[in-house]
Amino acid sequence: MEKIIDEKLQGNTLELEPKAANSRKLFIESYGCQMNFADSEIVASILHKEGFNTTSTLEDADLVLVNTCSIRDKAEQTIRKRLEKYNAVKKINPKMKVGVLGCMAERLKSKFLEEEKIVDLVVGPDAYKDLPNLINEVEEGRNAVNVLLSKDETYGDISPVRLQTNGVSAFVSITRGCDNMCTFCVVPFTRGRERSRDPQSILEEINDLASKGYKEITLLGQNVDSYLWYGGGLKKDFRNASEMQKATATGFADLLKLVAEAQPKMRVRFSTSNPQDMTVDVIEVMARYRNICNYIHLPVQSGSNRILKEMNRLHTREEYFALIDTIRKLIPDCAISQDLITGFPTETEEDHQDTLSLMEYVKYDYGFMFAYSERPGTMAARKLEDDVPEETKSRRLAEIVALQREHSLYRTQQFLGKTVEVLIEKESKKSTLEWSGRTEQNTVAVFPKEHYKVGDFVMVEILDCTSATLKGKAVGMAP
């Protein structure tokens, strides 16, 4: 659950500039977290070279791929419905092939292929380079599956085609997999062990994005703070590295510094952080470089030490508070957001009150809040009974959401009367006369368009706000 799931993006289809020589059509739809959307860009890149142009019309497709998520039951149910829809279209267009990518592929391979016979192709998150071979297998009439997890695949040598993009901000993957065995989470089983990408390939990708006019990048990983490059290989094998490798290793604070210095005019963000892995040197680097945005997504999951232990979160409530205090001290205007799960097995009313009091202490800018849903294959599903009644989960979630709304409003109100830098990303959803962009704290701001354009850094005076949005007027270009 260390992954932000943006509900607005779910089910987005990707479209690229068509290549005249390409004769086949690919329809690719993505669900889940930002990592999945970034992975879809890699897949489209690989298949673009194999003669596929993208289409957003399902009925036209020769190949339909759905990039899936196993984080919540709701995501899986949605994908099942989509597969039924694809199969209805397949009856009309029998040449069409259907494939499942990503986390659900890894978990439900035999179910999809053998029991339900609803897909031709099942490809796990580390096997995308094998897609051309797998597609050939399918075209020869065989089912194809590759869900092997890799110790070293980082896709560092593939330049992703930017699909979901406004041409202003882009995601850059820096790690794959996760070593944290949180008991509620399927990620270590679906995406494998943690490995980091060569910093050189990261810098090349960022420099390339800058040359194409991008103004902001987000470094992405299941757990960015534990980024560690020592010449390749799994993070857990670092203890066997040579003295030379250890002495010259690049950690996350080093990488942040390299990125900030490589493109000083570009905004730098990162997600997701993990409380147990975030070190003071990362916060110090953030404080030192103006172009690193003062915003940290810092999932806590629960405010109760007992529940944190049951979740196998390797931090306590007190350690989390100490980290928050350090951030506030070194970066006073840093925005912080959360992930929270309510109704985890055995959670009592007292544990729930601990979560509310933690929220009161931090006063998050915003958050991603869920009622616990048991995920098959996780430690929690194997060892703990899902014993909190649904109505209790719903009530606790409503209390958490209401408190978060209060805190979000408190945070946006701090901007009233101030003038802040906003990067224009797109037209406002509510009005064609306004631009929408984000402050460095990741807060959405809208203001009249005037003569400004997408990609401009603009100084905006904040005149009004809701709990989610700042409203203001532009007072000039940012210095």
From TrEMBL:
Class of this enzyme: transferase
Entry annotated with the keyword Iron-sulfur: yes
A GO molecular-function descriptor: 4 iron, 4 sulfur cluster binding
Cofactor annotation: [4Fe-4S] cluster
Keyword S-adenosyl-L-methionine: yes
Catalysed reactions, as listed in the record: N(6)-dimethylallyladenosine(37) in tRNA + (sulfur carrier)-SH + AH2 + 2 S-adenosyl-L-methionine = 2-methylsulfanyl-N(6)-dimethylallyladenosine(37) in tRNA + (sulfur carrier)-H + 5'-deoxyadenosine + L-methionine + A + S-adenosyl-L-homocysteine + 2 H(+)
Domain called MTTase N-terminal: residue spans: 24-140
CDD domains listed in its UniProt record: Radical_SAM
Keyword annotations from UniProtKB, A to Z: 4Fe-4S, Cytoplasm, Iron, Iron-sulfur, Metal-binding, S-adenosyl-L-methionine, Transferase, tRNA processing
Boundaries of every TRAM domain copy: 413-476
Residues reported to bind [4Fe-4S] cluster 1: C33, C69, C103
GO CC annotation, single: cytosol
EC number: 2.8.4.3
Function, in words: Catalyzes the methylthiolation of N6-(dimethylallyl)adenosine (i(6)A), leading to the formation of 2-methylthio-N6-(dimethylallyl)adenosine (ms(2)i(6)A) at position 37 in tRNAs that read codons beginning with uridine.
HAMAP family found in the cross-reference section: tRNA_metthiotr_MiaB
Family stated for the protein in its record: Belongs to the methylthiotransferase family. MiaB subfamily.
Quaternary structure annotation from Swiss-Prot or TrEMBL: Monomer.
Protein name from the UniProt record: tRNA-2-methylthio-N(6)-dimethylallyladenosine synthase
Organism of origin: Antarcticibacterium arcticum
